[in-house]
From TrEMBL:
HTH araC/xylS-type domain: residues covered: 89-187
Keyword Transcription tagged: yes
Lineage of the organism: Bacteria, Bacillati, Bacillota, Bacilli, Bacillales
Top-level taxonomic group: Bacteria
Protein name: Helix-turn-helix domain-containing protein
Cofactor list: Zn(2+)
Record key words, sorted: Activator, DNA-binding, Methyltransferase, Transcription, Transcription regulation, Transferase
Amino acid sequence: MKNQINHSKEIMWQATVSCDSSYDGIFFYAVRTTGIFCRPSCRSKVPNCENVSFFLNGNDAQNAGYRPCKRCRPDLNMKIYDPLESLVKDTKQLIKNKYVQNLSLHEIASRVGVSRFHLNRIFKERTGYTPRVYLEKIRVNEAKELLLTTNLNSTEVGYRIGYQSVSSFYNAFKRNTGLSPSQFRAYRNLNNVNQELD
């Protein structure tokens, strides 16, 4: 088991260079030239050894004048911080809150602070969907809810959930459910089945 006190600078430096997450929470490293401190697992560019100081806790680093890294968030009180998980969570929340707006992938990526390419790749790796497909699923679930709980017609439902044309709504709905919006409403009313929506 690693000892918090008896770490040589060489061991801590090796853990920093190799981004060893097993040392997260045991020490932090700070870089004089940037004024930032990080977790050992941080994927930031490896600094020059002579510019690095080590601290046993984040408060000591902050008291010494260093700011927490925005990538690895050493200021958060958690053993392991997964920035990619936070990116996915923020993206999902943004899409859920703004699904009615016609947000482009570029706009979504810009709001969560990464490139379109990076967001598309990470989001698909973590969820199995691209942000656009996830947006479509959110919209279709909202459409199902409206079809079952209101008297709005299919066209009105499509516009209400953010589609700019009836055909794009119809195609998205059929792609996700296998039914047209009117078939879905008729089928559900006929069977009167209360299925829980995702």
